[in-house]
Automatic annotation (TrEMBL):
InterPro entries: ADH-like_C, ADH-like_N, ER, GroES-like_sf, NAD(P)-bd_dom_sf. Pfam families: ADH_N (PF08240), ADH_zinc_N (PF00107). The keyword Transmembrane helix does not apply. Keywords: NADP, Oxidoreductase. One of its GO terms (molecular function) is NADPH binding. It comes from Limosilactobacillus secaliphilus. SUPFAM superfamilies: GroES-like (SSF50129), NAD(P)-binding Rossmann-fold domains (SSF51735). This is Dehydrogenase. Residues 20-334 form the Enoyl reductase (ER) domain.
Amino acid sequence: MKNEKGLSKMATMQAIQLTGPCAAHEMKPTTVDVPALKPGYALIKVKAFGVNESEVTSRKGESSPDFKFPRILGIEGVGVVDQVNPGSAFKPGQQVATMMGGMGRAIDGSYAQYMLIKEKNLIPFESNLDWSIIGALPEMLQTAHGSISQGLHVQKGDILLVRGGSSTVGLMASVLAHHMGAEVIASTRNEAKLPKMKSLGIDHPILDDQDFTKRVQAIAPDKVDKSLELVGFSTLFEDMRLVKEGGFTCFTGALGGQWTLNNFSPFMIPTGVYLTSYAGEAKDLPAEYFSHILHLIEEKQLTVPIAKVYHGLAEVGQAQANLESGKFSGKHVVVL
């Protein structure tokens, strides 16, 4: 029997559903039931999704307590509405994006042909861009935008330091800040990634080595206005010492793995420098802003940092393996 707005109620789909920790190459599509529509939710036909570090962590069974097996991974995705409840603000066929909200952790996520998402976590849009480009954006754009706007209040003319600049969020934040008129210094520990960073329009891609501080000081002898911390506590205080009095440092990520610090004292923060943080949700990426960014991409005013595009669920394992290797710059995107 078919629902009047979509699939058979007993339909099945292909998904990457993990029953326990596994290696990347062990991630194989399996047949599962299409999730049943619930009040307040919409069923979305997945068109593309980005692959994220947190999903690698979950696949290894090293995620936080809200994650449990069996689970369909995927903390973000884009697609079209397939089924809605009566009175919904959405319509079948409408393009939508989503991220976070427990996806791929507390609830099943986007590594599937269909995903069941709370309507409040859906971002509507209209675009003719390829799904591979749109699929790269939600989580990366939300985190980058939130960090430089809510966390740092970046403005035209600012000198912004992005520590961990070759990460997906680092690249996206750099691209956005540069477009806003900020001068961007972005670091990487992999010299081979510097040309890619330069090609995206980053003003000063620099190597993060023993001479890091000297490199920054040579570019900004009067210190930087803002710094975005994506490496973690291992570099946080070094970065804050490079920020002007009255400037901001925003702690958003910990690529180095150190999220906390024992025996922390407020006096470790340089006088007059403000320390903020950012950790956001779908609501932090307004539909108007998402559409604005899509338009800028369509007009070739912004370039999306994409490392590689994969086709079909069977290539998810390779996407995770490539992400884990650290050899690529940009987002890994799977298109269905």
